[in-house]
Specification:
single chain, mainly alpha
Length: 328
């Protein structure tokens, strides 16, 4: 309907009176409700008369060059420290490592504020986190030689977690959220180790908690961090379950249930990264069952055939699921 023909009570008439921000909120709500993809939204530009968005081809070249430059800088710093390490005093060692991390952190924060260098912010912040963490370990090693490893790790990752909480709360960046997740996970692992919790239960607890946190982040603006998080926490959970129930029939059947649940979860959230790791977990569990229960009962050749058929069926199933997904 054209503008004059719209009735005052019609939905089209109501939409006409929305301002720009309200219109964007309505579009975002509709996209979430109908689970529209970026490609589908892009196709609607043709109907609105807007020109198709140009693909920025050279971006990958600039990203690759920036990544290679950062790697060369990191390699140069590490090589320089290795050459002069034994000639440095304890304060100089701390300043060389932790001080480098502070300088890189400042450079990263400056890059965040300057659009011309924004792409360099993430590598700088990541390398800064590595150097700061290593510098704190050097500090504890040089001045508190008898400190327990678990306590030292708690102190270091606790300090780094506090720093990234402040930075993420201030800047609200996905890369800082990633660094926060890493530091908090390592802090919890060190704390559980200090409490004499078995490593298999640590992996089980961290994997389960990490999956819950990642699921909560999946439908938020920070979902960019979820791809790698799904892989890491799913593997931790799978390793923990395997170590706990290995050889304990029928409890080891929980491994197949876990792998199946992870595959179904990947379909629900439309994550190919989780689907891929869930399929690998399923394959690993099937290999365990083949060697544990079928090798001696049916003969190894028959067990290999059964295992191969299971792999073919699972690969076909995963391929069909992957094609139906729009997430990464």
């Amino acid at each position: 309907m054209s503008g004059p023909d719209r009735e005052p009570g019609s939905p089209d008439h109501a939409l006409e009176h929305l301002d720009r921000e309200q219109a964007l909120e309505v579009i975002a709500a509709l996209a979430r409700a109908h689970r529209l993809t970026a490609a589908e939204l892009e196709r609607t530009r043709v109907g609105t008369g807007l020109p198709p968005r140009r693909r920025r081809g050279p971006d990958w070249v600039r990203t690759l060059l920036a990544l290679m430059g950062g790697l060369f800088v990191l390699a140069g710093l590490l090589g320089l420290l290795q050459l002069i390490w034994h000639d440095l005093s304890s304060p100089a060692r701390v300043i060389a490592v932790f001080g480098s991390g502070l300088v890189l952190l400042v450079l990263g924060l400056v890059a965040v504020r300057d659009p011309a260098f924004e792409r360099a912010a993430s590598p700088l912040l990541l390398v800064a986190g590595l150097f700061q963490t290593a510098g704190l370990f050097v500090l504890l090693h040089e001045y508190w030689l008898n400190l327990d490893d678990a306590v030292a790790s708690m102190l270091v990752f606790g300090v780094m977690s506090a720093q990234f909480v402040v930075l993420f709360g201030t800047l609200r960046r996905t890369d800082l959220l990633f660094l926060l997740l890493v530091s908090v996970t390592l802090f919890l692992a060190a704390t559980l180790t200090w409490l004499d919790v078995d490593h298999d239960w640590i992996a089980l607890a961290l994997g389960g908690a990490g999956l819950l946190v990642t699921f909560g982040l999946e439908r938020t603006a920070w979902r960019g961090v979820c791809g790698l998080a799904w892989v890491v926490y799913a593997l931790l959970l799978a390793i923990g379950v395997y170590e706990v129930v290995e050889g304990a029939f029928p409890f080891d059947l929980l491994m197949i249930i876990l792998a199946a649940l992870l595959i179904q979860l990947s379909v629900y959230i439309e994550r190919r990264s989780l689907l891929g790791v869930a399929v690998l977990i399923m394959l690993g569990y099937l290999g365990y069952y083949t060697g544990e229960y079928f090798a001696d009962m049916l003969g190894w050749p028959i067990a290999l055939i059964v295992f191969g058929l299971a792999l073919l069926a699972l690969s076909g199933y995963a391929f069909r699921l992957g094609r139906s997904m729009v997430g990464k």
